[in-house]
Amino acid sequence: MSQKLIEIAKVFQTPLRLNAKAGDTILIMTDTQMDPLLWQGLATAANGLDMEPVVTIMTPRAHHAANPASPAMQAALDPKVDLVIYLTSTAMAHAKITEDLVDAGKKFILMEELTVDMLKPGGPAWADYEAMNRLGLKIAEVYSKGKTVRVTCPNGTDLTVDITGRPGRSIAGMPLALHPGKGGGCAFPDGEAHVCPVEGTGEGRVVFDLTAHSVGSLKEPMILTVEKGMVTKIEGGYQAQIWRQLLERAGDTGSYNCPAEVSIGLNKNVVPTGSMRTDKKMYATSHIGVGDTIVLGGTCHAKLRLEGVIRYPEISVDGQVLTRAGRILLDD
Fold this sequence. Notes:
The chain is built from 7 helices and 20 strands. The protein is of the alpha+beta class.
C-alpha cells in the first residue's frame, strides 16, 4: 500500500467516524472522472474501522443534479446499506436520489468534486469541525427566527428575500436530518450555515465573483438579475454564457428559481481552488443557489441546481449583520 493511500485513508476516518460505526455497510458511489485514489482511500478507511465498503463506478453524469446510473441508485436504496457517499465529479445533492434517500431514512455524505489536494494536511478536510458547528448553530438560529435576508456586496450584489418559517441549518461534517424523522446528511470537506428562502420572494441582483458550478474559478463577475424569485437575466463573459446554455437546454422554469439557498461558509482552512466542493465552504463567503429546493424543504422541484460564490458578502437578517468584509460577526 502506497504512503499516499495510507495518508488519504487516515483523513477519511474523520467523516466515517462522525457518520457510521463498526459493522455498517458503506456504499461509495463514484465515477471514472474521479481520482481512483479517493475511492480506494475511502474503502481502506472503512475497512480499518471494521466497516464494509461497497464501491460502484459509473461514467460521469451529464450535468449537476442528475441521478446516478440505475444500478448505483438501486444499491444506494438497499435496506442493508447504512451510509451512502457521493464521490462523484458532478453534484448530486439535489438529484432525485437524494430525495429518495431522505424519504428512506438513510444517511449520506456529499464528497462531489473532491480532489486529492483537498485532503492535504492543513487543508479544508483538517478544519475544526466541532468549532465550525458551534458557529454554524449560532447563524442557523438567527436564520430560523428571521423574516428577511439581505445580501449586499461592493461588487454590486443587492438581494432581498423572505425566509419566514424556513429553518436555518448548520452543516459541518456531522449527520443532520433535513426533515424531521427522516434521513439526512452532510458534506466532506464541509462547513456552512444555510437557509432555504421562500420561493417567489427574491428581488435584486446577485454578482458571483469567486467560483460557480460548471465553470470553476470566475474570470469575470457573473451577474444574475432576480425578479419575483426567478432569474430573468444572466450577464458576464463566456462563463455566464455557459450558465445561460445550461438553463436553456434544461427547458425547465423551476431551474431559474432564485435564491434557492443563502449560505455562509464556515471553513477557515479553505483556499480558493476553483472547485465548488470547497470554495463554497470558505469562511465568511456566501454561496447562493439557483433551482431545486425540495431536498432543503422547499417547494421548487427543478431539473437543475447551480450555485455560485460571493467572496466578501454582507449578509443581514432583519437588520442584524452576520457577515461583513470577510468576517463572521457572530464568531467569538
